[in-house]
Amino acid sequence: HCTVNPVNLMTCSEEERQIKKTVEGKKLVIVGGGIAGMKAAEFAAARGFRVILFEKERELGGILRYADFDRFKTTLKRYKDNVAKRIAKMGVDIRLNSPVQRIVLEGGRAAAVESDGRRETYDRILVTAAPEVLLKLAPDLPRDFRERLVKIKYLANACLVMKLDRSLSKTYWLNINDASIPFVAVVEHTN
């Protein structure tokens, strides 16, 4: 949810943070149970969608699952676990160990998902997995859209974890938007 309005960097009011139900009963499938998929499920369920979340692994969290094994990342683990609990409580149909084999296009739009030997139709389909996964799942995407997906360039990142004897700053997460600096963020888990 909005905690800071990025346009004017002012704190949002309580009213601005409220998600209004605008869609009632439409079925939305989300492919990918990482943090992006979980947060999309949370938002969509709050708006009134009936959400079905497909995750190929045995648990939610995507890359954040690695926080489960790092004693310095208990805050991330707690965050991931809390989002998973919230979406379950909101009634999101979470399907673990359920890789999607195919997204079926009908009439120029994504209309159905094939998983676990079944084909189910949905009002909306959202893929939060990487674009190369979407390319494999939906081979019938229009050629121009496939070409645009292929052109997306990715950068890998490496995380340096340091144990400090004092706090570096009072800021938990600091984005670095300067191309001359060889990193994009400083995240301090001691705050």
Radius of gyration: 19 Å
Q: Tell me the series of helices and strands, N- to C-terminal.
A: EEHEHEHEEEEEHHEE
Total E-strand runs? 11
Approximate shape: globular
Fraction of residues in H or I helices: 25-40%
**Side-by-side strand order of the widest sheet:** 5-4-3-9
The biggest sheet, with number of strands, parallel, antiparallel or mixed sense and barrel status, is:
4 strands, parallel
Count, helices: 5
Q: Which consecutive residue ranges, at least 5 long each, have pLDDT under 50?
A: 1-10
Mean pLDDT: 83
Beta-strand residue fraction: 15-25%
Q: Separation of termini?
A: 21 Å
Structural class, by secondary structure, is alpha/beta
Descriptive report:
This protein has 191 residues and is of the alpha/beta class. It is 26% helix and 24% strand. The protein has helices at 14-17, 35-47, 74-89, 131-137, 143-151; strands at residues 4-5, 10-11, 27-31, 50-54, 93-95, 100-106, 109-115, 118-121, 124-127, 173-175, 185-187. The strands form four sheets. A four-stranded parallel beta sheet has the order 5-4-3-9, covered by helices on one side. The protein has a three-stranded antiparallel beta sheet with strand order 6-7-8, with helices on one face. Strands 1-2 form a two-stranded antiparallel ribbon. β6 (100-106) and β7 (109-115) form a beta hairpin. It starts with a strand and ends with a strand. The model is unreliable at 1-10 (pLDDT under 50).
Please write out the topology:
Layout: E1 4-5, E2 10-11, H1 14-17, E3 27-31, H2 35-47, E4 50-54, H3 74-89, E5 93-95, E6 100-106, E7 109-115, E8 118-121, E9 124-127, H4 131-137, H5 143-151, E10 173-175, E11 185-187
Helix pairs in contact: 2-3
